[in-house]
Amino acid sequence: MKRKFRKNQQGKDLIRKFEEMLKNGESIFFDISAYEYIIQHYTEVGKYKKSAVCMSDCDYSIPFFR
User: Fold this and answer.
1) Backbone φ/ψ region at 12: left (φ over 0), alpha (ψ -120 to 50), beta
2) In whole angstroms, what is the distance from residue 65 CA to residue 13 CA?
């Protein structure tokens, strides 16, 4: 079941955690629903490079998702 993160504090926290992960060069595991939310967020706001970075991170973290 897809979780709803949109327009609430939890969604904002996911974006913030992803941004901090990139900034600090860390690796944080997100579940597939979180990755979907983050990718969709960056795509909707036109930040395609960050969306691609998130897709790559998802592919690395969850390789069996393909």
Assistant:
1) alpha
2) 24
Pure H helices in 1-66: 9-24, 32-44, 48-61
Give the list of residues 6+ apart from residue 12 with CB closer than 8 angstroms, or none. Answer: none
Q: From first to last of the 66 residues of the chain, give the pLDDT tens digit.
A: 455 555 678 889 999 999 999 999 998 889 989 999 999 999 999 999 999 999 988 888 877 755
Taking CA atoms, 64 is separated from 20, 28, 42, 58, in Å, by 26, 18, 23, 10
Q: What is the DSSP letter of 8?
A: S
